[in-house]
Amino acid sequence: MTALTPPAAGPAHLTRWLIRLHRPALLLWTAVVVVVSGVLLWLRGPLADASAAAWKAYDACQTATCGYDQAAIIHYKDVYAYTTYAVLAAPFLVAAWAGAALTGREMETGTARLAWTQSTSPLRWFASRLALPAAVVTAGTGLLVLLHHLAWSAGKGRIGTLKSWYDLPTFYANGPVVVALALAGLVGGALAGLLRRGSLPALVAGLGFTGLLWYAVQLVMPHLWTTSTSVVALKRFAPTGGGLGVDEGIVTATGAHVSNLTCGNSENDECLAFYDRFDAVGWYRDYHPASHYWPLQLIATGLVLALTALLTLLAFRLLHRETGARRRSS
Q1: Contact residues for 129 (Cβ-Cβ < 8 A; gap 6+)
Q2: What residue numbers bound the domain in which 156 lies?
Q3: pLDDT (tens digit per residue) in 319-328
């Protein structure tokens, strides 16, 4: 047990000890970032060019017998989907590791308490557990988000199956909110390790916290910025597209907006009767245009980072209270 305890030292020695202790996780994270980054660069360059050329040939087709590289189109689409979900998985990987290994394992085996009595204070021990991983997580996740955004941008106007900016997986993988979620997962997992004091329970708790936080972000995100509204008369089909949808429904003769009351085709007899019953004269749609992308991302990122800071403060206070009480009782 003593061999696992770091010697009494300053921050530099604690950092070196942390790297030594978690070297396999650091190497695995580096490998994941390098591999996914390489695939994103491939997606941005050769795959995007091949798919764009195939789409150009397809658009130029005038007969049923002309050819185009359908495999290139499908290949680009598949690789884009895989890399997008790989970027979105980063916060969950970080949370699982932070709960199971960063704090949970040391609390479970008792090496943390041994370190507190022989080499360093509990607060300095926990600070050393967060500082370097936070820097590594920020750098790695930030790089993936940047490269994903560049890869997506390379297909704009060239690839017919390119996901829109408001496609939800693309929306999140292209922005800094994923980096903030990864940091929140790190702190949430580390806090779970302190509270649960077991690798497996802390792993599950860290994943659960990150999943709930991600769900909350998706619920709140559309309401962080004032929406634009599109109103059209009851002509043919209800309005779709144009941006990130928030709400839609009918406009009554009094000008009131009634949410979630739509019927696809206004010329269908059933739909006509439906709209007459509610005295509808038009459709409305509340949405976010492309110009709202960065305000939504930055506000959501700020909120998640603020929550992360509060969790960090809570973890330090809980650790200080517990270890202080132990010292007084002993």
Answers
A1: 18, 102, 103, 190
A2: 23-59+69-223+293-329
A3: 888 776 454 4
